[in-house]
Amino acid sequence: MGTSSPFLLLLSLVMICFALGTASFYDDFVIVWGSNKARILNNGDLITLSLDKNSGSGFESKREYLFGKINVQLKLVPGNSAGTVTSYYFASKGSSWDEIDFEFLGNLSGEPYTVHTNIITQGKGDREQQFHLWFDPTLDFHNYSILWNPLTVVFFIDGTPIRQFKNMNSKGIPFPRNQAMKMHFSLWNADDWATRGGLIKTDWTQAPFTASFRNFNARACVWSAGASSCSVSSPSSRPTRHKWLTKRLHITSLQRLKWVQNNYMIYDYCTDTKRFPQGPPLECATN
C-alpha cells in the first residue's frame, strides 16, 4: 500500500464488518499446545490455562482478523507466580510477522503484577512498555482490550487506555495493517527474563499455576481465503456499532492515558538511552 495516508486507507476499508459479540470459546478457539492443561468450561464461556514444570498451554482463534476491537476478561495466576507469563496477543505468520502483545509477568506474593506490552511490525519489535497494575488482578476478572484499526493500536485495562501506537506509515514507520492475525491466549514459563530480568526463578512447588479467561468479545474484520469480510462502502453509511474502525483517543481518554503513564509506567523503550544511544526511535516523537 506504499506510504498512503491512513485516512485514505479508511476510505477504501470495509465499513460493514463481522461482529462476534460475546462468543463461545468452543466456536472460536482451538487448543494448540498443552492440551491436557487447557480447558473450556461453563458451556464455552470460560477457559483455564495451566502451567507446570513439564509444559504450559495455549489457545488460538480459528479465525484471522485484519483490524478489530477485542475484549476479554482475565483473572491472573494468584500467589507466588514469579517466572510465569500469561499472554493475550495478535500475531501473523512468517519471518516478517506483525504482533500486538499483552503479557502479564508473574511476581512474588504481595508484589504488583507487571503488564508488558510490545508491538512488532514486519518482524521488528523492541517497542516494549511496561506498567504496574493499580489493583490486584488475581482476586477477580478485569477487562483487557485491544483496539486495532487503520489509525492506531490502543491497549485498554477496564476501559482506561494505557498505551497507543499511531499509524505513521506515511513517515516510513511500519504499522500493522496488511497482515491478518490470529488471537492467542497462553500461559508459559519465562523465568529467564520475566521476573526482575530473570533473577527470580519459578518456584515449581507452587505448580500447577492457573489463569482464567472469559467473555471474549470481538468486533472485527475477518480474513478468509485471501479476502476480508469487509466490503467497500461510504464511511457515511457506516453503522454506529462499527465506529471502532475510525476511533482515536480524544481529550478525556488522552488525559487518562497520561495519568496511567505518569503513575504506573515502569519502563518505556523511548527513554532507554542504553538501548538507543543514538536517540529514541522516530515513532516516539508522537506516540
Automatic annotation (TrEMBL):
Listed EC numbers: 2.4.1.207
Q: Which GO terms describe its biological process?
A: cell wall organization; plant-type secondary cell wall biogenesis; xyloglucan metabolic process
The record ties this protein, via InterPro entries, to:
Beta-glucanase-like, Beta-glucanase/XTH, ConA-like_dom_sf, GH16_AS, XET_C, XTH
Gene Ontology CC terms: apoplast; plant-type cell wall
Q: Where in the cell is it found?
A: Secreted, Cell wall; Secreted, Extracellular space, Apoplast
GO molecular function terms noted in the UniProt entry = hydrolase activity, hydrolyzing O-glycosyl compounds; xyloglucan:xyloglucosyl transferase activity
> Gene3D superfamilies annotated for this entry?
2.60.120.200
Keyword field = Apoplast, Cell wall, Cell wall biogenesis/degradation, Disulfide bond, Glycoprotein, Glycosidase, Hydrolase, Secreted, Signal, Transferase
Primary site of residence: secreted
Top-level division of the source organism's lineage: Eukaryota
Describe how it is modified after translation: Contains at least one intrachain disulfide bond essential for its enzymatic activity.
Record's function text = Catalyzes xyloglucan endohydrolysis (XEH) and/or endotransglycosylation (XET). Cleaves and religates xyloglucan polymers, an essential constituent of the primary cell wall, and thereby participates in cell wall construction of growing tissues.
The family line of this record is:
Belongs to the glycosyl hydrolase 16 family.
- Please give the PANTHER family that the UniProt record associates with this protein: XYLOGLUCAN ENDOTRANSGLUCOSYLASE/HYDROLASE PROTEIN 8-RELATED
Q: What is this protein called?
A: Xyloglucan endotransglucosylase/hydrolase
